[in-house]
Amino acid sequence: MVEYRIDRHSGVATYVQIVQQTKQALRLGLLRPGDQLPTAREVVEATAINPNTVLKAYRELEREGLVEARRGLGTFVRRTLGAAPADSPLRGELEEWAARAVRAGWDRDDMAALFTAVLDKSFQGERS
Predict the structure, then answer these.
(1) Would you say residue 126 has pLDDT above 80?
(2) HEC assignment per residue over 63-122
């Protein structure tokens, strides 16, 4: 099951953080079709956010066809995203790179900037 972490200082709307974290779990294979998302009550208890915020995020995921709400039962994953399993060897390499960057004195924003620049270069031909 996914555990949501809300960063109140990120500038990203809380419901968007829930949507993004759910999509990340789908991409990594941490959530699979048929899995149940935490109930709104469970998310509220764990994060101290408004229940309507959770419901808004779940409605957005449902609108995108990723989950479905079953009245009286909960919200369930309908389909997955991507093909980046959490246990991929590439993840280990990326973790090693991040550890080296931290040892070199880089902070999160430094690493994110470099990683984003490399991604942008790698996917340059896919933009329309």
Answers:
(1) no
(2) HCCCEEEECCCEEEECCCCCCCCCCCHHHHHHHHHHHHHHHCCCCHHHHHHHHHHHHHHH
Q: 6-18: per-residue pLDDT in tens?
A: 999 999 999 999 9
Judge contact between 38 and 46, C-beta under 8 A.
yes
Tokens, residue 107: 């902070």
Domain assignment of residue 3, yes or no:
no
**pLDDT tens, residue by residue, 69-81:** 999 999 999 998 8
Full residue range of the structural domain in which residue 107 is found: 89-126
Evaluate whether residue 98 is within a structural domain: yes
Is residue 117 a part of any domain in this protein? yes
Backbone angles phi, psi at 75, to 5 degrees: -115, 130
Instruction: Provide the token pair at 115.
Output: 């990683």
Model confidence over 88-120: pLDDT tens digits?
788 889 999 999 999 999 999 999 899 989 988
Same structural domain, 95 and 69: no
Q: How many domains does the chain have?
A: 2
Query: Which CATH number goes with the domain that contains 42?
Result: 1.10.10.10
